[in-house]
């Protein structure tokens, strides 16, 4: 079979994105973001994001096709994120993708966005070995996944019991006074701070009590501990050592994520760890994963930044995997699923 050409469309949160992937080659990649419109509210406002998708979808898809020097007739299939995400946002991307598929008589695949974050690493590192583990970390998800076959079979090994890692960073950032999204500001300040300056607990290093499950995460206690410490300093009239707070928080979160992911690889016999999601842009996490990975002989595959954050390439890449695996396309009226597991 010649290499499948897939148009991928993404609209789960605040990025409207489209890309064309042919086999393992990224042919075009266009991303528009409504982040600036949300910043003054301190978080993504679903209604604003949905409207922004409605405005951006046609121009973004048109540009992705134009950049690829293609028309819809050159495409073998369309893939679109059907969940998890904000319902109104998903509805815009999925409706648009269905309309294009119907008009151009192309098969359509409604895909799982989180699995797209895993699939996209193939564009940089090539196919992954069988039975690999993946750590997907963003503002909305923190999951350790076992990938038996990216097109057909992915299992959850561990997940966050409360806040996602990015969410924890964003909440602490707000207390410090950084604009939304605060994660990248914490990253930057952490680079000049002392990671051992403040004692930050490591969220759930072993398992939750009662039901032992060593690969789950919990970051809400970490956030509360840092918040309490900041409050105490303020009450005592002391200045907040911002860089040290950021470095200590980043060290705690990166250490627990890296240790659990690498320990998981050892238990599951996976010599490779796939990493993805917006939070994998974090320098402290990247450094810690590479350090612990090298120590334990695990090949850690963290893609370049533009493939970590939400994009259409991840959707198109997973679409290519589905076409190659001979998976049947979705029904023309497939639903969105904002809490897709
Ligand atoms: O995957 P993503 O773009 O959107 C979601 O699906 O959530 O991830 C966005 C999250 C935000 O919480 C943001 O603060 C965090 O990733 N983030 C970072 C960094 N870059 C993005 N957190 C820490 N350090 C960074 N460099
Ligand atoms: Zn994402």
UniProtKB/TrEMBL annotation:
Binds 1 Fe(2+) ion per subunit. It comes from the Bacteria. The keyword Cytoplasm applies. One of its GO terms (cellular component) is cytoplasm. Keywords: Acyltransferase, Cytoplasm, Iron, Metal-binding, Transferase, tRNA processing. One of its GO terms (molecular function) is tRNA N(6)-L-threonylcarbamoyladenine synthase activity. Its EC number is 2.3.1.234. Its cofactor is Fe(2+). Pfam families: TsaD. InterPro entries: ATPase_NBD, Gcp-like_dom, KAE1/TsaD, TsaD. It is found in: Cytoplasm. GO terms for biological process: tRNA threonylcarbamoyladenosine modification. The keyword tRNA processing applies. Substrate binds at residues 136-140, 170, 183, 187, 282. Fe cation binds at residues 113, 117, 310. It catalyses: L-threonylcarbamoyladenylate + adenosine(37) in tRNA = N(6)-L-threonylcarbamoyladenosine(37) in tRNA + AMP + H(+). Gene3D superfamilies: 3.30.420.40. Residues 26-316 form the Gcp-like domain. Its main location: cytoplasm. Belongs to the KAE1 / TsaD family. PANTHER family: TRNA N6-ADENOSINE THREONYLCARBAMOYLTRANSFERASE, TRNA N6-ADENOSINE THREONYLCARBAMOYLTRANSFERASE, MITOCHONDRIAL. Required for the formation of a threonylcarbamoyl group on adenosine at position 37 (t(6)A37) in tRNAs that read codons beginning with adenine. Is involved in the transfer of the threonylcarbamoyl moiety of threonylcarbamoyl-AMP (TC-AMP) to the N6 group of A37, together with TsaE and TsaB. TsaD likely plays a direct catalytic role in this reaction. This is tRNA N6-adenosine threonylcarbamoyltransferase. It comes from Bifidobacterium subtile. The gene is tsaD.
């Amino acid at each position: 079979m010649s290499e499948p050409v897939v148009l991928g469309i993404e609209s789960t949160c605040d990025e409207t994105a489209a890309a064309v992937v042919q086999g393992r080659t990224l042919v075009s990649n266009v991303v528009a973001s409504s982040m600036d419109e949300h910043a003054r509210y301190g978080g993504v406002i679903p209604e604003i994001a949905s409207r922004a998708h409605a405005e951006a979808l046609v121009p973004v898809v048109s540009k992705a096709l134009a950049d690829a020097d293609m028309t819809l007739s050159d495409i073998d299939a369309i893939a679109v994120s059907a969940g998890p995400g904000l319902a109104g946002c998903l509805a815009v991307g999925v409706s648009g993708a269905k309309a294009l598929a119907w008009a151009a008589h192309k098969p359509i695949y409604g895909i799982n966005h989180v699995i797209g974050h895993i699939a996209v690493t193939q564009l940089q590192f090539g196919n992954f070995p069988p039975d690999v583990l993946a750590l997907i970390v963003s503002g909305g998800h923190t999951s350790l996944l076992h990938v038996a076959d990216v097109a057909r079979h992915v299992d959850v090994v561990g997940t966050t019991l409360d806040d996602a890692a990015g969410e924890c960073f964003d909440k602490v950032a707000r207390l410090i006074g950084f604009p939304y999204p605060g994660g990248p500001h914490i990253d930057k300040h952490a680079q000049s701070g002392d990671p051992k300056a403040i004692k930050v607990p490591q969220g759930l290093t072993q398992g939750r009590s009662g039901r032992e499950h060593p690969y789950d995460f919990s970051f809400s206690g970490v956030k509360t501990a840092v918040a309490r410490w900041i409050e105490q300093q303020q009450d005592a009239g002391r200045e907040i050592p911002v860089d040290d707070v950021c470095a200590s928080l980043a060290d705690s979160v990166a250490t627990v994520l890296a240790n659990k992911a690498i320990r998981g690889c050892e238990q599951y016999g996976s010599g490779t760890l796939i990493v993805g999601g917006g939070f994998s842009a974090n320098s402290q996490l990247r450094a810690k994963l590479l350090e612990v990975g090298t120590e334990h002989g695990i090949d850690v595959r963290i893609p370049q930044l533009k493939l970590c954050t939400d994009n259409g390439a991840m959707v198109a890449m997973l679409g290519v995997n589905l076409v190659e695996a001979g998976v049947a396309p979705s029904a023309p009226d497939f639903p969105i699923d904002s809490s897709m597991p």
